[in-house]
Specification:
Order of helices and strands: HHEEHHEHEEHEEHHHH
Number of strands: 7
Largest sheet: 5 strands, antiparallel
Radius of gyration: 19 Å
Helix content: 40-55%
CATH superfamily of the largest domain: Transcription factor LuxR-like, autoinducer-binding domain
């Protein structure tokens, strides 16, 4: 497991675009004997399509985005409402979902997406995201065992993936006219979530000392005397975004 995780971290660190990020998590997913994954980040502006990165069948992802399924997908609804990871499945939804939601699950199952494990990611500075690992109904029992065996590792994988997506695909590092480096902004954003330097280091794959170095640089650039003050500047700048 250590080798798989280290390779995954290295692949994400080296990635520069969507395809490289996607291949990094696909490789790790397959190494853990899991069929497929999907990362979905809600849009900043109402009405815009969400960001979807996955190895689901393309026919399904095209259908999903075209019909705006994210607006009533029960998995996404649950991810938006809470922060705890959860499992879901086609056979456990009878009598719980609306008819359109049940039909969505049935359509997904026809594309081999009948059960899943979803990790919500609420980073507090913009769109909420979710990473889902999924399988078809024939692999449901095996899938459940793999999830139980690697639950914590999958949560870390999801956080790493989200952090790299936000850093490399949606960089927004200007705070009150001051430009932060990708790492400075990244560390400050996680600090805004109440993460300690040690926790941030685990998420980003760097040492606690390196996290402290980047936070101190951000503090100096913003001309503030404390990390909480720098965090307040970050939050204030995000609240004025269109």
């Amino acid at each position: 497991m250590h080798r798989i995780f280290q390779t995954y971290i290295n692949r994400l660190s080296e990635s520069t675009d969507v395809m490289a990020l996607r291949e990094g998590i696909v490789e790790a997913t397959r190494a853990l004997d899991l069929s497929c994954f999907a990362y979905l980040s809600s849009s900043v502006r109402k009405g815009d399509a969400p960001l979807l990165i996955s190895n689901y069948p393309s026919a399904w992802t095209v259908q999903y985005l075209k019909n705006h399924y994210e607006r009533f997908d029960p998995v996404i609804a649950q991810a938006l409402e809470g922060t705890e990871p959860f499992q879901w499945g086609l056979n456990s939804t009878a009598g719980v979902l609306s008819r359109p939601q049940q039909e969505l699950f049935e359509d997904a199952a026809r594309f081999g997406i009948a059960c899943g494990f979803t990790i919500p990611i609420h980073d507090g500075r913009g769109p909420i995201a979710a990473v889902t690992f999924a399988a078809d109904e024939h692999r449901a029992a095996v899938f459940s065992r793999r999830i139980e065996a690697h639950r914590q590792a999958l949560q870390l994988m999801a956080m790493y993936f989200h952090a790299h997506v936000r850093r490399k695909l949606a960089p927004d590092r200007i705070i009150d006219g001051v430009s932060l480096s990708p790492r400075e902004c990244e560390c400050l954003e996680w600090a805004a979530q109440g993460k300690t330097a040690w926790e941030i280091g685990r998420i980003l794959g760097i040492t606690r000392r390196t996290v402290g170095f980047h936070l101190e640089n951000a503090k100096a650039k913003l001309d503030v005397h404390s990390i909480p003050h720098a965090v307040a500047r970050l939050i204030a700048s995000r609240s004025t975004m269109p």
